[in-house]
Design brief:
Layout lengths: L5 H22 L11 H6 L5 H17 L6 H59 L3 E5 L5 E4 L1 H7 L4 H4 L9 H7 L9 E9 L5 E13 L2 E10 L1 H47 L6 H25 L4 E4 H18 L3 E6 L5 E4 L1 H18 L7 E9 L2 E8 L24 H11 L3 E4 L6 E10 L9
Helix pairs in contact: 1-3, 3-4, 8-9, 8-12, 10-11, 11-12
Length: 463
């Protein structure tokens, strides 16, 4: 019956009540069919609402009381009410039983659905933890490992995760054992640290750790994610060494160039003195000439060493994006802002990323120091490409340069550091075939970097 529509059930139930009344009339008083009037409302209770059940019960009570002999209106009313109550009570009882059964079934289905979702979520989390390249582990209040993934076992030198369970974290990552002893003000706490770790065989490594504490079963616990950064640290230090060597090579070349110029001038003066001045050609005079020549040869050697390897290609747009990430927080902290005016589709330029970043940072930091006393603290960085070259300009709102003629001279006496910043930056850019110049203006200070542009696609940056 539940599969039939409500209208069909209502029609069949009404017809059944009418059929029962007809049969009751035909049989007469020999056999009573009073209890049979209860069946249609009861059978349709699984589909019809309370209102329709009441209507069916009323119809059955009316038809039944109309066929019973009565001794008066009161007796007729009593028999009618008795039949109505009997029919309606039976129908509502079945209705509530069916409704409660449906609710129980729906609750069971919902519980089953939630159980499946929970199992799927647990399976996904388990697969995520097991497939993660980062070590994931949880600790109890005593510092013993409660659970871990395969990456954690491999990082600490264990054969499988089961061998790691129960091990004291003090022997592996002492910083986590210390974190468990810290009493937070409210609940747990979370932090990120870089600390020394120890493998099972005693080998040391550098770990980057993210951890948080929580409470379970009345005790404090700790969950941590750790990554072995030994290889990254090794590569970073080697890269820093290469960058330092390249920078030293460029600086050595620039200094050698200056020394060679001075030696060339000294050689000219020595030759003129030797030819014209009435100075006797003694040993000291000749030794002076030899010293100038030796110093010039040393400068030539420095220039040859500084030539080194040729620069590669750098995506200028990406380099400026990295610069934005580096310098924006410092300008915001100082109450200033950086305005970026970058042309679309900036080309590849000749150079090295670290060298360009060093030059960019030098100019931006100089500008940040220059605007400290200004009411408006602003730096405008503009980049564009035209006629086979790319230009990047830095314009700040500072007081400008008092002595522009000596800007690029080495060992500035009034500089806050060594006085080599602009000198080295220009030397680096010139080693890439570019240049750095100062453009005087009415206000502020403006430096322009020129770089050789390469519009052909570089395989290193192909998508």
């Amino acid at each position: 019956m539940a599969r039939l529509s409500r209208n069909t059930v209502l029609l069949l139930s009404t017809a059944a009540v009418a059929a029962i009344a007809l049969a009751d009339w035909l049989i007469g008083d020999d056999i009573t069919l009073g209890p049979v009037y209860v069946l249609p409302p009861m059978l349709s209770a699984a589909v019809l609402s309370r209102g329709w059940l009441a209507a069916l019960s009323l119809l059955g009570a009316v038809l039944r009381s109309a066929q019973l002999p009565t001794s008066g209106p009161v007796d007729s009313l009593f028999r009618f009410l008795l039949g109505l109550v009997a029919n309606l009570s039976a129908a509502l009882f079945v209705y509530e039983v069916v409704r409660n059964r449906r609710r129980a079934q729906e609750q069971m289905e919902e519980l089953e659905r939630q159980r499946r979702l929970r199992e799927e979520a647990e399976e996904q989390m388990r697969m995520l933890a097991e497939s993660s390249p980062a070590a994931i582990l949880t600790l109890d209040h005593s510092g013993a490992v409660l659970n871990s993934n395969r990456a954690a076992a491999e990082m600490f030198g264990y054969e499988d995760t089961s061998a790691l369970l129960g091990e004291r974290i003090t022997n592996l990552l002492p910083i986590l054992s210390e974190a468990l002893r810290v009493e937070p003000k409210e609940g747990g706490f979370r932090a990120a640290v870089q600390a020394e770790g120890r493998r099972r065989d005693g080998d040391l490594f550098l770990a980057q750790i993210w951890f948080s504490t929580y409470y379970a079963s009345g005790h404090r616990r700790l969950a941590a994610i750790a990554v072995d950064q030994s290889e990254e640290m090794r590569e970073r230090e080697e890269q820093n060494l290469r960058h330092l060597q390249d920078s030293n090579r460029i600086v050595a070349g620039a200094v050698s160039h200056e020394i060679r110029n001075i030696c060339s001038a000294a050689s000219v003066v020595f030759s003129n003195l030797r030819r014209r001045a009435p100075i006797p050609a003694g040993e000291d005079f000749e030794a002076l000439g030899n010293l100038v020549g030796a110093l010039e040869r040393i400068a030539e050697t420095g220039l040859q060493i500084s030539q080194g390897r040729s620069p590669g290609l750098v995506d200028l747009g990406e380099a400026l994006k990295h610069l934005r990430i580096v310098i924006s927080p410092a300008w915001l902290e100082a109450g200033g802002r950086v305005v970026w005016r970058l042309a679309e589709n900036l080309p590849l330029v000749t150079g090295e990323s670290y060298g360009l970043m060093q030059a960019f940072l030098n100019l931006s930091q100089n500008s940040l120091r220059a605007v400290q006393s200004s009411s408006v603290k602003e730096l405008v960085i503009e980049a564009k490409a035209e006629q086979g070259k790319a230009t990047v300009s830095f314009l700040d709102s500072g007081p400008g340069v008092a002595e522009p003629a000596s800007l690029f001279a080495p060992f500035q006496s009034k500089a806050e550091s060594t006085g080599l910043g602009l000198y080295v930056a220009r030397s680096i850019l010139r080693s890439y075939g570019g240049d750095l110049r100062h453009d005087p203006g009415e206000s502020g200070c403006r430096f322009v970097i020129e770089l050789q542009a390469r519009h052909e696609t570089n395989p290193a940056f192909s998508r």
